[in-house]
Amino acid sequence: MKPINYTIAFVVILFFGAYSNSIANGDAETTTQLPRMAEVLKEHHVGIDHWSVYARQNLKSVSNSSTFKQQLQTLKKKLPDFEWDDVKVNQAGQYEVEGHSKVSDHVSEQVQLFMYPQKNHKASYVIYELEGQTWNGNTWQTFSPTVDSRISTIFKETTDTKLYTTISGQKQAVSSKLLPAAQSYAKGLHARVVEKVKEKTFVSLSAYNTAWNQLIRTNGQKMNLQVALRTVGSTTTVTLGTPIITSEY
Questions:
Q1: Count of domains forming the chain
Q2: pLDDT at 31
Q3: Which residues in the chain land under pLDDT 70?
Q4: Which of helix, strand or coil describes residue 61?
């Protein structure tokens, strides 16, 4: 059977607004959620090799090429340490530009500005992402101030800004016990499983932690944690995300 690309679910949710909370509550939660997810992975002997904080906001004020260029100039002034690529425009009239900055050998930042046709008008949004390839006890303590600073700098208001966190790593294959293994990660994060997808070498769980304010809805049920395990050969990749995973898994 051909593997299913489960990132499609994320794209649908991202663009059609199922997210019911914002940075107003989410930023504070991220301070505890990401380190706790890292602890749970390490408790299960997972070697962490990627983590990210991802924020997104719609831009109602950007609706044509002129306002897109104005917004880009504003971002460049706010982020003078970023290197910016040239603006890309395709035949469909979609505009895209990316700026990036290397924070350290293993941590980088990027900002993306998009504008695309939507019915009879143009829709726009800006994305900020901080991502790293290693994790230790001081990682989040070192880089969480960067997230706070960038979010307040990039986004005009935080009330409608969506925030996502993802962390992943690898361990020795657990193909025959993928479902109970995935359930143990949800349990470690005090989350109740509300939905699951299971294949021979893959499992994905949607779960809900009542103590976390951020949430989306899946088939009428609340969720704010996603757990995914995929086994290839002798290795199982474990990915955790709040409220959903924002990368391929």
A1: 1
A2: 67
A3: 1-31, 157-159, 175
A4: coil
Give the number of other Cβ atoms within 10 Å of residue 127's Cβ: 18
Given a contact cutoff of 8 angstroms between Cβ atoms, the answer to whether 132 and 109 are in contact is: no
Q: Tell me the torsion sign for CA atoms 6, 9, 15, 19.
A: negative
Residue 175 has what DSSP assignment? G
Q: Is the dihedral of CA 50, 224, 244, 197 positive or negative?
A: positive
46 beta partners? none
Cβ–Cβ < 8 Å for 153, 75: no
Predicted TM-score of the model (pTM): 0.85
Find the domain containing 129 and state its range.
7-242
Q: State the pLDDT at residue 24.
A: 45
CA–CA distance, 31 with 236 (Å, rounded to integer): 27
**Cβ-contact 19, 13 below 8 angstroms:** yes
Alpha carbon distance 95, 28 (integer Å):
32
17: left (phi over 0), alpha (psi -120 to 50) or beta: left
Please tell me what DSSP assigns to residue 22: -
Say what the pLDDT of residue 27 is: 56
Q: What is the pLDDT of residue 5?
A: 46
Is residue 127 assigned to a domain? yes
Residue 130 is which amino acid? L
CATH of the domain at 119: 3.30.2030.10
- The answer to whether position 2 is within a domain reads no
DSSP H helices, the chain, are 7-16, 23-43, 65-78, 139-154, 178-188
